[in-house]
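ok so i was messing around last nite and threw this chain in just to see what happens. nothing serious, just curious
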Amino acid sequence: MSSVNFSNPDLDATVRLFDKFYLFEQDVPVDQYDAVLSFFNQAFGDPLAAKNFTISLFRVAESSKRPVMDLLAEIKDQDKLKLTTILCYFLNNQRSNTTLLGVNAGIIPNQYAARNVLP
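result:
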């Protein structure tokens, strides 16, 4: 029994990404989405984190006007820590300076102002 596998031209071969919190919506090719999602699944092992990083990479690609596969090729051979650092850098370019990701330095107040604060 033989079968013919062909794509249905009536169906659209895209994936719609949307994020209600940031009011972000984008249609992306399904092959690119699957490639990026499988990379992040392999890198992090957590499906929810992989989906969030996939959407983030497509947001970065759209805002920087670069193909997502070029961005993926740049980050492909990195470990988890370096990968997280690179994505924080990309995402910080899109965010407000008051909500930066990956900043771990504590804010040290002025000495004279700190003396006036009651515990």
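not much to say yet. Strands lie at 14-19, 24-29.
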